[in-house]
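Handout, section 4.2: multi-component inputs.
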Amino acid sequence: MEVDDKLIDKLASLSKLEFKADEKEAIKKDMARMLSFFEQLTEINTDGLEPLIHINPETNVYRADKITEELSQAQALKNGPNHDSFYFKVPKVVENKD
Amino acid sequence: MNSYRSLEAIQSDLSAEIIDMPSLVNHYLQRIEETVDLNIFLEVFKSEILDKAAAVQSKIKAGNAGKLAGMVIAIKDNICYKDHKISASSKILKDFESLYSATAINRLLAEDALIIGRVNCDEFAMGGSNENSAYGPVKNPVNKDYVPGGSSGGSAAAVAADCCLVALGSDTGGSIRQPASFCGVVGIKPTYGRISRHGLIAFASSFDQIGPLSQSVSDAALVLEIMAGKDSMDTTSSSQKVDAYSDFSENPKPLKIGFIQECLDSKSLDPEVKESQLKLIEQLRAEGHTVDPVRLEELDYLVPTYYVLTTAEASSNLSRYDGIHYGYRSSAATDIESTYLKSRTEGFGKEVKRRIMLGSFVLSAGYYDAYYGKAQKVRRLIKEKTESLFEDYDLLLSPTTPATAFKFGANMDDPIKMYLEDIFTVHANLVGTPAISLPLFKHSKSGLPFGAQFMSAAFNEKLLLDFSHNLMNIVALKA
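Output:
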């Protein structure tokens, strides 16, 4: 599997990460090595096997649909890097059309 | 004060009034000060723990203290403790304060355990050497030139350096057992779902488990028994009954133990580690156990399967760090997109970014089936194979790690070499079974400790701990 700049840019965009030119070279090299390491798995025959998703065999874990207050608004906002008493504050998201 | 190796010894001295709670806590605080160069603790809860120690002392006097009165615990920096800071050793969570305690923590506190501080680890528990912490590496208390292992390196070092009696760690692919082996302490990863993950910062949710590191098997068993059990806050926690792990059976019966031949044939295995395994096999036979070789032809595929699946889960779990709801926000952010990009790029360390990128790859359109879907199928194959081994054997034996602790920087330029350190430990996380590392050996050249790993079938901690307790007693008698 060839790892080129285009793939790194696409993955960086999906991951919401940025890489400088020198970092990009390093991650390209690491990714290429890791992906060929992963490709060993093609040697194993998995015909007829279902993917294993849940490790715990229990299914349908129900609980009563009851409203509880786990966190107050003030607590929920407490760790935000920028907030007022009611909202998380972010840079402007919506631009004026004119 | 002497260093204690079990809660039983502490409680006996407390009740005989040879020591009291404040002097016990002061002993650990002094040890933390003496070992500050090892960089184990990110924060010591000094002012509050002395007050709490006095409160436990009053309870002991009144005769209504909990089961863990006298137990001083350090917690890995990825387990929430209400109103205390937690960072997962990452810059992105610098100054974050927990809004609630992990269920495991609440259960320990309810039995009068004291929490002395939070300890260093690899960032988001990703690593096997503690070199990936944003707050610098932990040094191995046995020899400062060597890593303590990871990711629960601070937890293992804290126990080994007598800074606490027990430490909590988390284990996604060996992160409790490998540092336990490198630092010479006991470490157990319970069955997946045995302990609630509520309040554990998520890395790979179908692998992560909280577990104890300790000097003695009895302390590990007691702490596990108290933390285990169904929790409505974690739907993956099991409703299976929790056995009395700490109530060890007097006359353990001979067991059928399989040693994994491929582990002994592994090319990365240190010759002395191999030699010690062969001697252990002979010793177990001499004690009346049946010990046979068993095959696990898939051994070399375990680590790639593990990394495909855990990077996928990590990339999804770590998407919550957006620079908005909590944690670090870059001062260079000018709009919403750059808030995400700059905050994450500046907030995460190199290894975390590498794993997020790999996870994004294996989950992306066009590659999902070939990588992620394939690894999930291989995971089922390995699980079925392992379950069939447990039809014939009570326990599986292997070394915990291929070699002893390595020097700082030794594996930093080659991620695959670092990842292969996990070759014997990821098995238990892939299939969800419990596994323990027992501090049985010391390398003749370096003097560094190393462990043996025993694994049992899922939810069979009772058998695993009974056996381990007995084995460590026999070893202590011989020493």
